[in-house]
Design brief:
Blueprint: H1 12-85, E1 109-112, E2 115-119, H2 126-135, E3 139-140, H3 146-155, E4 162-170, E5 173-176, E6 206-209, E7 221-224, E8 233-237
Antiparallel strand pairs: 1-2, 2-8, 3-8, 4-5, 4-6, 6-7
């Protein structure tokens, strides 16, 4: 008699093994395809990040160079503005010896353009200096243009301040001794002047041609105590008549 096999009586382990044998061939290829997709996606992302990093690096390099160029330009402009706005940096060319002549002026006076100038060798207060100039039919010098200022800067002594014809008759109201309108003329105050520094004692109501260390530097104005003793410069307008 032939033996009869009943599948329902197969053991549980045999059934599980049979299911694995039928499922595995289908599951493994699908898993492999998913892994390949992940590898491809990861590779594409890595390549994209590399390209993006290189692009950002190049752009940052360009921006850094542009910033450096702009910074350099700003520093150049700032330096130019400072040089143009700082009158103390102006270099006065060497004075032509022919300009320091007596010309039509009296002895001990020098001639420049159409005027005579007297540089004192003694020191006096501002008012005494103006009185001495008046006795010479002149006034303390009125400096109202750069040519005259540069000429005077070239002939005065180093580190010495000279009285000029500038006086503050009322607080903040400066005027020239010859009656010329101060507001209508150019102003050549030194840096930080007038500061009325000695206001507690006598005030600083008289103008000076400010002393400087180097002769080639253009002199500017300073306000000082009128009772100080300083040398001075008289000015006389020359007339052929």
């Amino acid at each position: 008699m032939e033996s009869i096999t009943y599948d329902r009586f197969s053991s549980a382990s045999e059934i599980a093994q049979d299911e694995i044998n039928h499922t595995a061939p289908k599951f493994l290829p699908e898993l492999g395809r998913q892994n390949r997709k992940m590898y491809i996606i990861s590779g594409v992302l890595a390549l994209y990040m590399l390209i993006l990093t290189m692009a950002v690096g190049i752009k940052l390099s360009q921006v850094s160079q542009e910033v450096a160029d702009v910074t350099f330009s700003l520093k150049t402009i700032e330096s130019s503005i400072k040089e143009a706005s700082n009158p103390l940096q102006f270099e006065i060319p060497p004075l032509n010896p022919e300009l320091i002549v007596q010309g039509p002026c009296e002895e001990n006076w020098v001639f420049f353009k159409d005027s005579c100038y007297f540089q004192s060798t003694i020191k006096q207060s501002w008012q005494s200096a103006e009185n001495n100039c008046i006795r010479k039919n002149a006034h303390l010098v009125v400096v109202n243009n750069l040519d005259e200022l540069d000429f005077l800067s070239s002939i005065v002594k180093l580190q010495v301040s000279y009285w000029i014809g500038l006086v503050e008759k009322e607080e903040g109201q400066w005027s020239w001794v010859d009656g010329m309108d101060f507001k209508a003329t150019e102003h050549y105050w030194d840096e930080g002047q007038p500061d009325n520094w000695d206001v507690i004692v006598n005030g600083e109501d008289c103008g000076q041609l400010h002393g400087r260390i180097r002769v080639e530097k253009r002199r500017h104005w300073n306000d000082a105590d009128c009772t100080l003793s300083c040398p001075y410069i008289c000015h006389l307008q020359f007339s052929l008549g």
